[in-house]
Amino acid sequence: MSKSIKRPLPLLTEENRFFWTSGADGKLRFLQCTACGNYVHPPSPVCDKCLSLQLEVVPVSGRAKLAAVTVNHQMWMPMIEPPYVVGIVELEEQESIRLTTNIIKCKENELEIGMPLEVEFEECEDVFLPMFAPAAQKSKS
Amino acid sequence: MEKFEYKSAVTGLGMSEVGRRLMRDPMALTVDACLAAMEDAGLTREDVDGVCTYPGNVPGAGGFSGAGAHDLIDVLRLRPNYHNSGLEQAGQLGSIVTAMMAVAAGLCRHVLCFRTVWEATYVQLQRTGKIRYSGGGGRLSGGMEYRIPYGAASAANWIGMFCSRYMHDYGMTKEQLGQIPLNGRRNAALNPYAVYREPMSMEDYLSARVVSSPLGLFDCDVPCDASVAFIISHVDAVKDCRRGCGVGFEAIGTANTERVSWDQGDLHYLSGIDGAAKMLWTRTDLKPEHMDMAQLYDGFSFNTVCWLEKLGFCDVGEAGAFLEGGQRIARDGELPLNTNGGQLSGGRLHGYGFLHEACVQLLGEGGERQLPNGPRTAVISSGGGVPGSALILTAP
Ligand SMILES: [Zn+2]
């Protein structure tokens, strides 16, 4: 092993590899139904809206808003030290698509439900974990 | 056609000792509870012809599962016509519904149901190196890969997020939420098997350490060691039992209408509750105002908020106002809630404790904590975040 494990990481499969390695070029990607445009997550062989089997991997803006948040104070795993912020973010392209993630680069008292966020990736071994930071002011345009 | 709920009744109750770090074999706890339930029903093992449990022998369950159905069948040399266990069902009480169905289908006369936890002892064995920590080695799958890498390892994190969104949008205060654990603690003082019985004030509650905001220590239930067991009998066989009567079933709600997910559905309420609650009232003419008590799942205080609202005890977003001051849910209030202390103070009996307490109260066997005036009806629930279920029970 070249470096110590920083976090427990996802098992990469043929179905989820695109999602967890997407950040290699700085972009977040999801499956999208070619028939109806619905985004699907977690990765699945079928569109949950129209049941089409024709799904393709597409990049998204990486913009999202904070939908729910908690500041964790208890140590659950020795490798991740509290406190840290866990949030559920809603994708700009389709708000029913959510990620549970870490909210980073944000003071606890500045966390606000509804706040705009954008993706940043943390590289761990062969995985690029999408995390979210407050959106830069300019990205409003 | 008469509904299947009327085909069975609870005729036996059993409970092992309940405690923190009992350091006992979980199968021994299970046997204690199961033999007690049989004795309570006045039955022998030859009479038991069904076995149902939650979650059964699940790989990697640790202290979450103390015995599987096959283990118990072998230990007691039972000969069931039907048996079942599983994690994937309508909450812990889903296993009771399975037993009811086995009875109604004519497969069984007396089904033994049990639920065993030994989480407190298991953690102690891990800490002292007697059981190796099994997590942390391999890679994550099965849904966990979307949460654990972010340190969102506990239901306290997942439920904390829902609670934050609910409080943000509906204005429920921490003091209002705190009425659930405070009520539990008051009730636990009257319950000899409750884990935490010493008084707790609002100040104690508010000043407790934060686990995962907005949830503090007393919003989280108490892992413990215990087994709870029941005999579910065919109504025609109730007369053969010790009491000659049983606690009846009026309605079940097991519907799951949402995504089985901790983040892809409505973020105001835990998933797995809405469908079960709605289905429950379609199977009875009784209404929420007819319930003499509620024993509602409180793995976290916020689970109970979701159940209270989804079961229709208050309007959308009104649970905070309903809980204000705590009088409505007190022993002498309009809806006595979690009269054994719930899991928050009584101990994490994991769903089965709610059925046990409802039966004790409906049989009038609550001793010091018996509700006055002979309660006739109870609504109970388990689950939330994972698919849940709800039941209405009636006095003999
Ligand atoms: Zn589609």
Short description:
With 141 residues, chain A is mostly beta strands.
For the largest sheet of chain B, list the strands in their spatial order.
3-2-4-7-1-8-11-10-9
Order of helices and strands of chain B: EHEHEHEHHHHEEEEHEHHHHEE
Rg of chain B is 20 Å
Q: How many separate helices of chain B?
A: 12
In oligomeric terms, what are we looking at?
heterodimer
**CATH class assignment of the largest domain in chain B:** Alpha Beta
Q: Could you explain the architecture of this structure?
A:
The complex is a heterodimer of chains A (141) and B (396). With 141 residues, chain A is mainly β. Chain A has one domain (17-134). Helices cover 4% and strands 38% of the residues of chain A. Chain A has one helix and eight strands. Chain A has a five-stranded antiparallel sheet with strand order 6-5-4-7-8, with no helix packed on it. A three-stranded antiparallel sheet of chain A has the order 2-1-3, with no helix packed on it. In chain A, strand 7 (116-124) and strand 8 (127-134) form a beta hairpin. Chain B is an alpha/beta fold and 396 residues long. Chain B folds into two domains: 4-127 and 224-245, Peroxisomal Thiolase, Chain A, domain 1 (3-Layer(aba) Sandwich), CATH 3.40.47.10; 142-220 and 248-394, Peroxisomal Thiolase, Chain A, domain 1 (3-Layer(aba) Sandwich). Chain B contains twelve helices and eleven strands. Chain B has helices spanning 26-41, 69-76, 94-104, 119-127, 155-170, 174-188, 202-207, 274-282, 301-310, 319-323, 342-345, 352-362; strands spanning 8-15, 50-53, 82-85, 110-118, 210-212, 215-216, 225-234, 247-253, 294-295, 377-382, 389-394. In chain B, the strands form two sheets. A nine-stranded mixed sheet of chain B has the order 3-2-4-7-1-8-11-10-9. In chain B, helix 6 crosses helix 9. The two termini of chain B are 22 Å apart. The interface between A and B is large, with 39 and 38 residues. The complex binds zinc ion. Zinc ion is lined by residues 33, 35-36, 38, 47, 49-50, 52 of chain A.
